[in-house]
C-alpha cells in the first residue's frame, strides 16, 4: 500500500491507482515490444545477409548452411571441404576485422 497506517479510503484509492498505473505501463511496454519484434528480426536478417555477401564478394566464402541447403548428400568430400571452409572462414573473418579496424582508425 502507498501509506499503510492508518488506513483510510483515500489511501486505498491511492494504492489502487498506483497499481493500475504500474500495470498500464507494463502493458504498454509489452505491447511495444511485441510490435517491434518483426522489424528487429528483419534488420537482423538484413545485416546477416549483408555480412555474408561481403564475405563472399571479398573472400569467396560460402556459408556451410548454404552448402547444406544446396547439397543434400553428406559424404567424406563434404567433411574435408567443411574443415577447409572453417579455415577459410576464420581467415576471412580476421581479414574483415582488420579491415574494419583500419577503416575506423584504430590500431590493433
How would you portray this structure in words?
The termini are far apart. It is built from 4 helices and no strands. The protein has helices at residues 9-35, 37-59, 64-70, 76-104. Helices cover 80% and strands 0% of the residues. It is mostly helical and 108 residues long.
Low-confidence stretches: none
Query: How far apart, in Å, are the first and last alpha carbons?
Result: 56 Å
Computed over alpha carbons, the radius of gyration is 27 Å
- Proportion in helices: over 70%
What is the count of DSSP helices, taking H or I runs of 4+ residues? 4
Strand content: under 5%
Keywords: Membrane, Transmembrane, Transmembrane helix
Write the layout of secondary structure elements.
Blueprint: H1 9-35, H2 37-59, H3 64-70, H4 76-104
Keywords: Membrane, Transmembrane, Transmembrane helix
Can you give me a brief rundown of this structure?
The chain is mostly helical and 108 residues long.
Attribute tags:
single chain, 108 residues, mainly alpha, 4 helices, elongated, membrane, transmembrane, transmembrane helix
Amino acid at each position: 500500500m502507498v501509506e499503510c497506517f492508518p488506513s483510510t479510503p483515500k489511501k486505498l484509492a491511492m494504492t489502487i491507482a498506483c497499481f493500475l498505473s504500474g500495470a498500464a505501463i507494463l502493458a504498454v511496454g509489452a505491447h511495444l515490444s511485441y510490435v517491434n519484434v518483426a522489424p528487429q528480426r528483419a534488420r537482423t536478417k538484413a545485416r546477416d545477409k549483408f555480412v555474408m555477401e561481403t564475405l563472399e564478394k571479398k573472400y569467396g566464402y560460402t556459408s556451410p548452411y548454404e552448402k547444406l541447403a544446396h547439397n543434400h548428400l553428406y559424404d567424406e568430400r563434404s567433411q574435408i571441404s567443411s574443415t577447409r571452409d572453417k579455415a577459410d572462414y576464420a581467415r576471412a573473418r580476421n581479414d574483415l576485422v582488420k579491415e574494419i579496424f583500419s577503416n575506423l582508425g584504430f590500431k590493433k
